[in-house]
Amino acid sequence: MTTTQVSARSESFTESVIREMTRLIALYHPDDGINLAQGFPDFAAPQELKDAACAAIQDDVNQYAITWGAKNFRDGIAAKTRRFQGMEIDPEREITVCCGATEAMISAMLALLNPGDEVVIFEPFYENYGPDCILSGATPRFVPLHAPDWSVDRDELASAFTSKTRAIVLNTPNNPTGKVFTREELTFIASLCMEWNAIALADEIYEHMVFDGEQHVSIATLDGMRERTVTINGLSKTYSVTGWRVGYAIASPVLTSAIRKVHDFLTVGAAAPLQAAGAVAMSFPESYYTRLEASYRERRDFIIPVLEASGLRPFVPRGAYYVMCDIADFEMSSDVEFARRLVEEIGIACVPGSSFYSVAARGDQQVRFAFPKRLETLERAAAKLMGLRDAMRLPAQVLP
Length: 400
Ligand code: GLN
Prior knowledge:
The protein is of the alpha/beta class. It has 14 helices and 14 strands.
């Protein structure tokens, strides 16, 4: 008889710190707190998309879609992937629509990993990947991204691959660092995947947020990778509908049939009317994506000098919508202490850096801010952050 009522597996990881910060800001500052912790927009989703979802409900698209995704949505995904990546995919056999990219990742891991397999993960990493590995019985092998530019040391990466390696998680553009992996880096990763017969689990949810002339490259498009990549994406970030929970996994028919089985028994399927709206999103014109990228660049360019003036040292992101910052100048005991005081005393939520590391000490002088917010919200955040130096007793900025 066990002494606890819960599984050892569920006890082997903690609650999401990102979601906890969202709860804390609402608790301490229900009226005027600003949540720059969990990455979701505070602005409206595209009207056309909302109309399409409402119309689908009124048209009674209210019963289960096909478990692996509504045909018109899968056709749309295939067409968009051809348009942006030049990649031909068979919507009948190579796409699984899931409840968010989150479910696509865990379904892929449960479908493709065996207990004892190792999974290479770049660190810092989006916190879900750790529990994803644990839930699928695999062991993560962390490889550092080196600040300030989050570079990869090829020797460190190569030595993480062994005969036990089954997969690498590759998130580009990257959460939390904003790194956009270059074609050269991806080619090197691809060569290791082929040498060790490993799969790339490529989370590309931020594909349309790249700045400074960087280019998003899908590892599936590199020679030899089409058959050994699961490309994960979704509506949440690109179309500002994080609450819809609609994502998808693209993979070869062999991998897809395993992913579809796991997905079916986990969730049966993603919301049918929202998939119908997704089909509309997939045919948005080029100008939608150009505007999206420009608006995120504007937000990034606004928030970086604000963070600098507040005494933080931001690492400028080249993609996605987060900024990691070094907080060493505040001489805080930890990132958690900094984040707690920022919530309580300033009224802004950020994510303690340690949540993105396997060993807390590695991230205890970093925090992450998310900037998918209206400029007006970011301006309010800037006003609050003006009090940060005083509140945290950092000497005034010494001007050169
Ligand atoms: N991806 C977002 C983040 O990193 C939201 C995570 C979540 O809560 N699902 O903040």
